[in-house]
Amino acid sequence: MDNVEAHITIKTIDHARENGVLLLTLPSHTSHRLQPLDRAVYGPFKKAYNATMDGWIRSHPGRTVTIYDIPTIVSETQLCAMSQRNIKAGFTATGIYPYNKDIFMDADFASAAVTDRQNPEANADAADLDPIPGPSSGAVGSSPILRPNSCGIGQQPVSSSCGYVSPSAIYPFPRDEPRKTK
């Protein structure tokens, strides 16, 4: 499961425990890499569905596919794509089972780093502190020194400010020409 609030409720957790179901939730920004069905079932399903649909169109020239034809096409496709072998391959590809913690490198999740923020409440006490010197402070090519920002939102480079910049200041809104009257 992903971590959507609607998926993780007390009622859901209790129901799972009562029925011996172990819930596995995926960390944020990793579902594209950790969903077994996405990795090994839906791709083959789409490919098989398209092939089956092409065959149906060839064997029924001039006819349009209706909602009554779709279940037959999907049922033929499911047997090919949703096999036990493909499902197991999905869990292996994601490193869920057998467990493989080294299946991904840190670079695979670099795009999620832009959303990493500290709790603003944790920074409230330290907001008046001077910049925190880092271990490589002053070194050429070192990362910027970070300090809690005065806005109380995460950590910002020392040189940044938290003033609001309107989108119109960056790129003015286009103006329409006056109406022409006849």
Uncertain residue segments: 127-162
User: Helix amount, in percent?
Assistant: 25-40%
Question: What is the first-to-last residue Cα distance?
Answer: 62 Å
Radius of gyration: 27 Å
Organism: Acanthosepion pharaonis (Pharaoh cuttlefish)
Biased composition (Low complexity): 135-144
Protein name: DDE-1 domain-containing protein
Region (Disordered): 118-182
Describe the structure.
InterPro entries: DDE_SF_endonuclease_dom. Residues 118-182 are annotated as: Disordered. Residues 152-163 have a biased composition (Polar residues). Residues 135-144 have a biased composition (Low complexity). By secondary structure, the protein is mainly alpha-helical. It folds into two domains: 10-106, no CATH class; 117-161, no CATH class. Helices cover 37% and strands 3% of the residues. Strand 1 and strand 2 form a beta hairpin. Residues 127-162 have low confidence and may be disordered.
List the helices and strands and how they pair.
Layout: H1 10-18, H2 31-34, H3 36-40, H4 42-59, H5 70-81, H6 84-94, H7 120-123, E1 146-148, E2 155-157, H8 167-170
Helix pairs in contact: 4-5
Short summary:
The chain is mainly alpha-helical and about 180 residues long. The chain has helices spanning about 10-20, 30-35, 35-40, 40-60, 70-80, 85-95, 120-125, 165-170; strands at about 145-150, 155.
